[in-house]
Specification:
heterodimer; A: about 575 residues; B: about 425 residues; alpha/beta; Rossmann fold; Ubiquitin-like (UB roll); de novo design (two linked rop proteins); 5-stranded mixed sheet; 4-stranded parallel sheet; 9 strands; about 45% helix; about 10% strand
């Protein structure tokens, strides 16, 4: 183990450790900018330049491994000057109008400049203003704020395996954009939003729909209701200053009431409904020798991906709408009827950990009256946090409230939708118990939990072995999809989520989400599940009630009309 | 005569399109000799020769060769870097256009020593003639059994193909070149890993300048020890120089290390054409330092050059006589790097443009003392923090100019101030 010195502190460090990691272990914080957990080390920004005694140039701490006898000075005058000069140059080519930026006070560049004590740049501004890309419903690209750190390029190409963003041009003309500077809507972007989640500045962000929500909340003619996805309750707290993984369900409901929503519902209710519909779809396909494997369809980025790149396997996708869209359809039919409200007056807002959901809500199929969207506005976790801050709500001191009836009743099966593997587990709890006709011995399917991006297992139902797979990240999805396309897929049932670790790691979640952080959120999700009285979707009396009073049975004609959809190849 | 022709001995004596001409002057003889020897003995010869890379950085050649020889992963690649794009350099082109088989012979020897079977010559896209000549030479060498399978009936296969880029200067940098070969934009990679462990398509790769390969036969022929006696202790052997600028006899010359620059300019170059005094010389090319006339007695030597944080570069001498606008020269250099930076790392992408903007202030008589300090500070930041050799060496001219010609900067600042005063009075 090499012995090294950083800032005169002696330490023994594993061979192969970088200076940056060695320093971190000893609570020495070396500033970085392009560095991001889970992504490649490109050392492009050069902010972490440090001095090694005896070496002429500076080295980047993120990429330089330690060696015996190495003596590092993090803040030698030369290193500090270089770090400042580089930051000043970034600022000179950046739309640094901070107060008008969505990342104000939550921006890595701003924080870096502040920590370095930069209040004035030595360099003249050299920013060439370029137009924004506002083409999509999900994401906005602002090239004037881009600092070319390359994180978005890396996450899109290497984690998601899509690669729609890259560095175009060279030298100071280089920009990060889709090929030929096309709009996001003209390329195979899935709107997963991972780019917006890793961006250190405000160069790529979710399309901000908060103004629209403020307006409808103020409109006396509108009945504004809101649904909340399972992953929000374990991540919103972080954005509002609470510890990582805090479970904030009750406070979240109170906050939404304070914002002025007439009713606050839980998307978990329609997640339970999804389990019923998808579970029966699976049972049917198995019984009637239908198309297998069946693949989950809750994730809109995955649907976009399949429609773009794997049109051959669209029949393998479950025809079930996502829980968000099932909720929207029911809100404007069943709920409107029951509450006797004109569906035209109902405005459905959903709070999602996801940017692709914004585009999903605008799909032409997602409108039961063929005119208005079933879900009118989709907000990300980040946008909701923004509204809570705008309202001046003291979130931490809020009293806890409960979801509105009738779907206050939800099951643990729905909660775990937020974690990779959750939809599969929820479905298996129902399918196995229904098919076997006897209670499950154990509700938790430990064998399918974990963090590997592709997991597979054999599940025994009525003495028959079924092969299932779970994939998260789109590069894993590609492998699974290719197998099906090639006719060599060994599976019966597959769950696919586009974002790393599932919706907890969604593109609309708080900034700086890493795998480590997502795993903590997943722990919280399983904890909520364990504490639930009802843990299987088919045990949820509210769901059974909906079937008896309105839908009939899973897969019925009306269920099909409201809860199912279809897919088609997308071309340009 | 101060010239010493080891690499250039056949220049002008053979038709580069004819392998028979080459064979008639002992061509491929050294390859045959090498193939009979043990690989380790050959590596030892190179180590004893103390040969340093001829592309600019001067890295010990034997270290790279041994690193590649140790790799067990196959395939291993031998890349000959002939992407000569540095302004003021033309010796690689001259080499290819005069003795293409010498390069092939050198690459074969390197491949044999390191157990590599695949070679690539990456030639600057604009060098049409050199590309044609090299391609022809490869075809001829294959026909005669100097390339291909079981070369000269030895258990050794080696093949070479010619590739070229789309005209980006940075592709002369080793990792940018490798990226370019992989079909990607020419942008460097972070090191480590180095090419010898993870190079082209992540396979072990040796990448050297074309002149380095061309030198290998000479070393094997005369022995490493004998080669090491030529030149100076830190810089052994001979160097091809590209002599250009305001001299009578511009061209490529091969001289041993250790010759003073003044001698080269006067004896080989014939002094300035106009008879004017030399004001300064830029060494190595656009990425090299600018030195004043009084330093021309300095000898050409790696160690001597490193003293002022510069490399000998690829061996260019650009002579600049009295009468040229000093700041226009710096501007041309800055424009070049602003254009050629790949844009990957911040200091080089943003910094070169700021350097250019400040130089323009000097040209426009708008510079203040502060600008000189910002220029100097920024030039050092680029030098110390850029990711690859391009960014690190881009400010060399400015750094050296600020060192040796500081008075010129100060005079311009004073002139700017008095001009400002004059405007104020009017």
């Amino acid at each position: 183990m090499p012995k090294i010195k950083i800032n005169n502190i002696e330490m023994f460090v594993e061979t192969g450790t970088t200076i940056l990691d060695a320093a971190k272990e000893h609570n020495i914080n070396i500033p970085t900018l392009c560095h991001y957990p889970d992504l490649n080390i490109n050392s492009d920004c050069r902010i972490c330049s440090v001095e090694i005694i005896g070496r002429k140039g500076l080295v980047t701490a993120c990429s330089t491994p330690v060696y015996e006898g190495m003596e590092v000075k993090v803040n030698s005058p030369r290193a500090l000057n270089a770090r400042k000069a580089i930051t000043e140059m970034i600022l000179a080519n950046h739309d640094a109008n901070c107060t008008s930026c969505v990342r104000n006070m939550n921006c890595e560049l701003q924080r870096l400049a502040d920590n370095l004590g930069i209040h004035r740049s030595r360099f003249d501004s050299v920013l060439n203003e370029m137009p924004l890309d506002t083409s999509s419903y999900s994401l906005v690209r602002n090239p004037n704020r881009c600092i070319k750190c390359g994180r978005c390029v890396d996450v899109c190409a290497n984690i998601q395996g899509i690669g729609v963003l890259d560095i175009m041009g060279r030298s100071r003309d280089s920009i990060i954009s889709p090929a030929f500077n096309k709009a996001l809507t003209e390329i195979f972007c899935t709107y997963c939003g991972q780019c917006s989640s890793v961006c250190p500045v405000g160069a790529i962000t979710e399309k901000d729909d908060t103004d629209e929500v403020w307006h409808v909340l103020d409109d006396p003619d509108k009945h504004v209701i809101v649904q909340v996805a399972p992953a929000i309750r374990v991540s919103l707290g972080e954005e509002l200053g609470l510890p990582l993984g805090s479970i904030v369900t009750g406070k979240l409901i109170s906050a939404l009431k304070m914002l002025g929503f007439s009713k606050v519902f839980d998307t978990d209710f329609t997640a339970d409904l999804t389990v019923m519909e998808e579970g029966y779809e699976l049972i049917n396909r198995i019984k009637n020798k239908g198309k297998l494997p069946l693949i989950t369809s809750c994730c809109p980025a995955w649907i976009n991906f399949a429609e773009h790149e794997f049109p051959e396997i669209l029949d393998n996708l479950s025809s079930c709408k996502s829980p968000q869209q099932m909720f929207g359809a029911l809100a404007k039919s069943y709920y409107a009827q029951r509450e006797d409200i004109d569906p035209k007056k109902i405005h459905v807002v959903s709070i999602m950990p996801c940017t692709a959901k914004k585009t999903e809500a605008k799909r032409s199929e997602m409108s039961i009256n063929q005119e208005d969207p079933d879900v009118d506005t989709v907000l990300t976790t980040r946008e909701l946090a923004k509204m809570i801050k705008q309202m001046g709500i003291d979130f931490n001191n809020l009293k806890e409230s409960k979801f509105d009836k009738p779907d206050e009743l939800t099951s643990g099966a729905a909660i775990i939708f937020g974690a990779s593997g959750g939809v599969m587990e929820a479905a298996l709890r129902t399918v196995k118990e229904v098919l076997e006709g006897k209670p499950l011995k154990r509700i938790d399917f430990d064998s399918i939990r974990g963090s590997e991006t592709i997991r597979e297992a054999d599940i025994e139902i009525n003495d028959v072995q079924y092969k299932i797979a779970i994939a998260h990240t789109l590069s894993s999805a590609r492998k699974i999809a290719q197998q099906i396309k090639d006719g060599v897929s060994p599976y019966h049932f597959i769950e696919i989520m586009a974002c790393p670790n599932g919706c907890v790691g969604g593109g609309g979640q708080p900034y700086a989400t890493s795998s480590k952080l997502s795993r903590e959120r997943i722990q919280s999700i399983y904890q909520v599940d364990r504490l639930m009285k009802i843990r299987k979707a088919h045990d949820n009396p509210a769901v059974s009630n909906l079937y008896t009073s309105y839908l009939g049975e899973p897969g019925s004609h009306i269920a099909h009309k409201l809860l199912h959809t279809h897919y088609h190849q997308k071309k340009f | 005569m101060i010239e010493m022709k080891l690499i250039s001995k056949r220049f002008g004596k053979i038709n580069p399109m004819s392998i028979d001409d080459f064979l008639a002057l002992d061509g491929y003889k050294i390859l045959k000799k090498a193939l009979k020897k043990d690989k380790l003995d050959l590596l030892d010869e190179i180590q004893q020769s103390k040969l340093r890379g001829r592309g600019g950085a001067g890295f010990p050649v034997a270290v790279k060769l041994m690193a590649l020889a140790k790799e067990s992963k196959q395939p291993k690649y031998i890349i000959c870097n002939a992407d000569e794009g540095e302004p003021g350099n033309f010796k690689d082109r001259y080499l290819m256009e005069n003795d293409p088989h010498e390069i092939i012979e050198g690459m074969c020897i390197a491949a044999y020593m390191t157990s590599a079977n695949k070679g690539i010559i990456y030639i600057r896209g604009e060098y049409n003639k050199a590309i044609k000549i090299m391609k022809n030479a490869i075809v001829q060498a294959k026909e005669k059994g100097y390339l291909g399978e079981n070369i000269l009936n030895f258990d050794f296969d080696f093949d070479i193909e010619v590739r070229s880029g789309a005209g980006s200067y940075v592709c002369g940098e080793e990792f940018s070149l490798i990226e370019s070969l992989e079909g990607k934009p020419g942008r460097t990679r972070v090191k480590p890993p180095f090419p010898t462990s993870k190079g082209l398509f992540n396979q072990p790769t040796l990448i050297n300048n074309i002149e380095t390969f061309a030198t290998l036969p000479a070393i094997i022929e005369m022995s490493g020890k004998a080669y090491a006696k030529i030149g100076t202790p830190s810089s052994t052997g001979t160097k091809l120089l590209s002599l250009s600028g305001n001299v009578k006899n511009r061209g490529v010359y091969e001289v041993p290390f250790g010759i003073p620059m003044r001698k080269i300019i006067e004896e080989l170059g014939g002094g300035t054409e106009s008879g004017k005094k030399i004001r300064m010389v830029q060494l190595g090319g656009a990425c090299g330092p600018i030195i004043p006339e009084y330093m021309l007695d300095m000898v050409i030597d790696f160690e001597r050059f490193e003293e002022f944080e510069s490399k000998t570069g690829a061996g260019a001498l650009i002579v600049i006589e009295e009468g040229h606008d000093f700041f226009e020269i710096l501007k041309k250099i800055s424009e070049f790097f602003t254009h050629e930076s790949c844009g990957k790392c911040t200091p080089c992408r943003e910094g070169n443009y700021h350097l250019l903007k400040i130089i323009e202030k000097f040209i426009n008589y708008e510079a203040k003392e502060k600008d000189m300090y910002v220029l100097e500070n920024l030039a050092h930041v680029l030098h110390h923090t850029s990711l690859c050799g391009l960014g690190q060496s881009a400010p060399t001219a400015i750094i050296s100019a600020l060192h040796y010609f500081r008075g010129t900067f100060q005079k311009r600042i004073e002139a700017s101030l008095s001009q400002e005063d004059a405007y104020a009075k009017n």
